[in-house]
Each structure stands twice: as structure tokens, then as C-alpha cells.
Specification:
By secondary structure, the protein is α/β, with parallel strands linked by helices. The chain has helices at 22-33, 51-56, 68-77, 83-94, 96-102; strands at residues 10-18, 37-46, 61-67.
């Protein structure tokens, strides 16, 4: 956090990425506890694994510069991902739980 923020002030949380959103809730709780309003979160990459919904449930909007789906499409368009790799990764994004069951660690 940069600088002093008076109670009641609105702030924006900026971070590199969001996955499930749980770490952002830690900041949200801390800022709310300090009397600061966090209504918007800005990230570079949204991994599209539920973070948007988690934040929305707490009245906070997520803004991302790019989503993982868009990033994968760009790599695919540049022929940096094969069709098989692209479809495999999209399968994960479409249904992570089913993908995890089919690909145990």
C-alpha cells in the first residue's frame, strides 16, 4: 500500500493476476476493517478461475488487462501453441474440475 489513506476513502487494488480471488479477499477485509472502501481491483491477468465472481459477491469489480483465454488465443494465432495444446488448455478453462480428474497429478 502506498501512502496514508483516510477512512472512507476509495482505493483501487492493483496486482499482477487473479485466480480464485481468495488472496484479494484478505486485502478487501483488511481495507474494510481500516475504514477504506475497495470497490475495484485491477490485474494484468485474469486466470478465469472464479475470481471475478468471488469479488462480485463482495461488491467489488474486477478489471483485467487480459484474460488467460485471450492470452492463449494470441499464442495460438502466433502458432506458439499447437491445436492440441490449445484445445487441452481451453478444456481446462471450460471445466477445471473435470480436467483435473482426467489429469491426476
Amino acid at each position: 500500500m502506498e501512502g496514508l489513506v483516510p477512512r472512507g476513502e476509495r482505493v483501487v487494488l492493483m496486482d499482477d493476476l487473479i485466480t480464485h480471488g481468495t488472496s484479494k479477499l484478505v486485502f478487501l477485509d483488511a481495507l474494510t476493517g481500516a475504514g477504506v472502501r475497495l470497490e475495484d481491483v485491477l490485474v494484468i491477468l485474469d486466470r478465469e478461475e472464479g475470481g471475478t465472481s468471488v469479488l462480485a459477491e463482495h461488491g467489488t469489480r474486477l478489471h483485467s488487462l487480459i484474460t488467460l483465454r485471450d492470452l492463449l488465443a494470441a499464442y495460438h494465432d502466433l502458432n506458439e501453441l499447437s491445436e492440441t495444446q490449445f484445445e487441452e488448455l481451453r478444456g481446462y478453462l471450460d471445466d477445471p474440475e473435470t480436467w483435473r480428474r482426467a489429469h491426476p497429478a
